[in-house]
Amino acid sequence: MQFLDEAKIFVKSGDGGAGCISFRREKFIEFGGPDGGDGGRGGDIIIEVVEGNTLIDYRYQQHFKAQRGHHGMGRNRTGPDGNSVTLKLPVGTQVIHEDRQTVLLDLTEIGARHVLLKGGQGGRGNVRFKSSTNQAPRRADTGMPGEEMWIWLRLKLVADAGLVGLPNAGKSTFISACTRARPKIADYPFTTLVPKLGVVYLDEQEFVLADIPGLIEGAHMGVGLGHKFLGHVERCRVLLHLVDGTQEDVAGAYQTIRQELSLYADHLAKKPEILALNKCDALLPEEIEEKKAALAAASGGAVLTLSGATKQGMTEVLRALWQNILPYKATPANTEEDADPDADEHDEYSHWQSEE
Predict the structure, then answer these.
(1) Of 40, 75, 250, 281, which one's alpha carbon is 20 to 30 angstroms from that of 66?
(2) Burial environment of residue 286 by CB neighbours within 10 A (0 to 12, 13 to 18, 19 or more)
C-alpha cells in the first residue's frame, strides 16, 4: 500500500432543511389552521479513528459533503435529517486548520469518534408561528447553512520506538533483521524515502518499531527529508540512534542528529535514547573500542555495539529499547515477571509484519 502522510481536503456539513407552509384541509373541519412541519437537520462531518498508517485514500477524493436535511411537510411532519459523512482516519493523524498551524483534532485513540462540523439546524414550519393574533401564518424559516472548511490531514506514525540516524546508518538493515518489514536496502544515501513500521517480538513481548528516513544537517528547516519525517519521531516512546561505525567522525554524526532533533522540537531531544554503534562487523576490535569511546564522550552515556547484517548485539539493543517502552505498556495483564529483567530470556525473538 502506498504511503501518504499529508493530504488537504474540503469538508462541508449539510444545510438544514426548510420549514413548510401548510394548512390543514379536511372535510367538515372549517378552520384547520397551520400544520407545516420543521425541516430536518443537516448531516455532520464525523471523524472516526481506525488502525492504519497511510492517508492514501484522501489523495484521490478530496471533497466530502454531508447531505442536507429534508424539507418539512404538511400534517406536522418534520423532514428527515441528512446523512452524516464519516471520515475514517488512521491513529496518529492530526486534523489541522487551513492555516497549517492550528491543530483542531489530535487522533491518538483507536475507535474514538469526533464531530468536526455540525449540520445546520432545520427551519421552522408555519405551525411554529401560530398565535392568538395570527391564526394563519404564512411564514416558515429556511434551514441554517452547514459549516465548511479546508483542512490538512497530517499523519504522525504511532510507534513504540523510532530509528534515527544519518542516511546510510543501517536503519533499514536493522529493521529488516528484527521484523518482517522489507524496506529497500542499498549502499547509497536516502534509500528509504518513506517511514516503515515493523513489529518486534522479543521475550514473549512485542512492540512497534519505525524506520524513519535519514536526516541530515538542516533537517529542522526542511533540508533533505527533514520536515517531512521529523514529525513521525514525535509519537515514539524511545529513540534508537544508529551511528555508522565505518565513517571517520562518529561523534560528529551523533551530534548532527541530536542538534536537528533539539532545533525541530525541544521535547524530541528529551526523549529516552539508546545509542548504538552499527556495522561493527566491518570493524577491527580496536576500531570498535576507539569509536565506542568517542561516542561515549560525545553523548555522556552508554554505547551499545551491533551489526544489523550479522545480528550481532541485536538482542541487547532490543532489550534496552523494551526497558524504556515497558512503563507505557503497563496494563492489568502485565505481571511483575513480565517486567523483571532477571526473568528467563529467550535467544529467539522477532520477525513479524510491517503494516504496509
Answers:
(1) 75
(2) exposed
